[in-house]
Each structure stands twice: as structure tokens, then as C-alpha cells.
Amino acid sequence: MSKLDQILILEPPSDLRFKGPFTDVVTTNLKLKNPSDRRVCFKVKTTAPRRYCVRPNSGVIDAGQAVSISVMLQPFDYDPNEKSKHKFMVQTIFAPPNVSDMDALWKDAKPDDLMDSKLRCVFELPSENDKVNDVDATKAAPVMNSAKADPAAAAVPVAASLDDTEMKKVQEKCKRLQTEMNKLVEENRQLKEDGIRMRKVPRSDHMTSNSTSLLGREATTASLPSLLVVIAAIFIGFFLGKFIL
What we know:
- It is found in: Cell junction, Tight junction; Cell membrane; Endoplasmic reticulum membrane.
- Belongs to the VAMP-associated protein (VAP) (TC 9.B.17) family.
- The protein is α+β, with helices and mostly antiparallel strands.
- The protein has a domain at 9-97 and 112-124: Sandwich (Immunoglobulin-like), CATH 2.60.40.
- It is 48% helix and 23% strand.
- It is built from 5 helices and 9 strands; from the N terminus they run ββββββββαβαααα.
- The strands form 2 sheets. It has a 5-stranded mixed sheet, with no helix packed on it. Strands 1-3-7-5 form a 4-stranded antiparallel sheet, with no helix packed on it.
């Protein structure tokens, strides 16, 4: 009787590829798919059991189902001139009804009932493009972390927009103050012209007294706009100095 062909579909079908560097554990995955209408028992073996950790290394796959197996290569000193001789074998057998003792099943199995597939191990070093991508990812990680750790940096554009709004308000206040200063200057000019006209009119003693009183009020009124101009200038300088500093 000829040996049965493997019933399971393996992905990858022939090679298990491990990509270095091999200074840490390197893991690759093996998928076993059962396309039949019967349950299938499987077992994974290797020629270098001390170099690999396989999880799960045995089990049962129901009809139409699949299982993913992690094959973990332990760290070692890689020599590119040394060709890998490591191999894996996936051994399978149709599960009998109500199977419970897996060890007894494999021990009592007949060779003609066993199916197997062999896979070769391939070691690969990362390419130059992979190295560049890894370096870029390493550089990008601290930048992302610093952005998360410093929310104030993300708030800078908002603060800048707030400063622009405040500056517009100050500019509007300055325009209003400038308008008021112009009005005060115009009133001051009118008062001076009225004073000059009053001095040209002939005066009696009563008129002299009234003129003296009027001139006193004129001087007081003339000094008031000048004082307001000084206060407005100080106010504008305060706001401009606040936003410049």
C-alpha cells in the first residue's frame, strides 16, 4: 500500500524563513489548514529541537478549520557562510472517533496511515532598505512620544491665534484714543481762538473781571487736553510693550 499524501495545506508550503538580526528571538508563523471533512491530528518535529520553540507543537484540527503555529528561533551567532541544515516535518493522521490519548495514538499508528510534509529553514539578514526603515521608525518614535508628553507644544498655534485677537483689540483701542485726541486738539484750538477774540473786544471793569475769569477757565481747559494726551500715550505704550515683550 502506498503512503498517503499530506491532507493538510501548509502556508508556507516548503520554506520557513527567519529574518535577522539573530541577537534576539526571531518568530515565524506556519499555518495548517484542514480542507477535508474529517478531523486530523498533527505533530511538528525538527532536526534541531534545542534551537527552536514551537507553540503549539501538536493538536487536532477540525474539518474545514485551520491552526496557526508560532516557530521561535532562539538567539545565536549567525555566520552567513554557513548554510542552514535545519528542517521541520509536519506529521499528520486522521483522528479516530473519540480520541483521548494522543501519545498512544501516535505510538500505535501504522506507517501507512501517517502523512508528512517537510520544510526547510532559511535564514535571511535584513536588507539595506529594511535597515533604513528601522532607523527612521526609531527616530520617529521619540518625536511622537515628546509630542504626547508636551501638550503645551501642541497648544502653540492656539495661543498664537489668541495673541492675534488681543492685538486687534489693542489696535482698535488705539484708533479710538487717536480719534479722541484729535477731537481734544480741535477743541483746544477753538478755545484759543475764542480767547484771542475776547482779548480784542474793549473791556470795562466788569468785562475785565469776566475776562480774567474766562481766561482762567481757558487755561485750565487748555491744560486738560494736554494731560489727556499724555495719559493716552502712556496707555498705548503700556499695551504695545505688553505684546512686544
